[in-house]
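Now for our specimen.

. . .
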Amino acid sequence: MKKLISIILPIFNEEENIRPIYNALKSLLEPLEHRYDFELIFVNDGSVDQSWPILRELAHRDKTVRVVSFSRNFGHQMALTAGYDLAKGDALITMDADGQDPPKLILDMLSKWEEGVQIVYARRIDRKDSFLKQVTAKVYYRFLDVVSDVKIPRNVGDFRLIDRKVLNTLNQCREKARYIRGMVAWTGFSHAMIDFSRTNRTAGSTGYTWKKMFRLAFDGMTSFSMFPLKLAAYVGVFVIVTGLLMFAYICWDTLLYQVNYPLFKWLVTVVYIFMGVQFILLWFLGEYIGRIHDQQKGRPLYVIADEINTAKECDEARV
């Protein structure tokens, strides 16, 4: 039997780009139909333009097109999640519909997947964004790489291929604050990179406002790092050490040089030290909150990449 490839495209006010990306994908995939079956899954994320009527028309005309529409805008990551929930493919490819993710890379992704790679990232080596966006992106990814408990590949977005095994693991992770590119890296399956230069949008304007980008960045940092909760510990240690040095200096000056410090300076130094103690106590509180946060995510405790001669495998073989 031919393998099924699911291609998932989140849509938010992309009325000018839907038909071009659909035509580009169909032209690319038609020569591969002797090897694969394809399904195109469009997730309408609460668009307020003509995106939904266009998608509905495509679905009526082409049975390989599957469309779902949200009641309102739930966000890019939720649209990707809905696509993953709907997909039936052996491999799944997510990409944007704005023309910045070149469809031709799908051929390279499938080639890597056939070699046994379970996650294939499209890595941006050049991007046509504004100077400010490029700088903030570089700073954010470097910072995330330092503080994150999971090594998330730099300069990769949501243009990637994942194997069905990876998807089965992702579908067990149902946290609401979703940073899917981090969740994919967290699964730990084998991965490869395909480099490309990202072009400008084909038409229209991006739906990713600075507010949405900040929210996504914050989700990425809080979902895969306890660093924000540990800040109180670093601040507390700094305050206590500097406070003790100040207190020691005052004592030294008073005892050896008979300098008469007023009472308020002694009190200020002691209060400063106790502020550091409070920060340490906040760190302890943060650690408990962090463990509760980690527990409520509901992620599986471990991920099985393969099985040999297990009871589950024997049961599947008998079926």
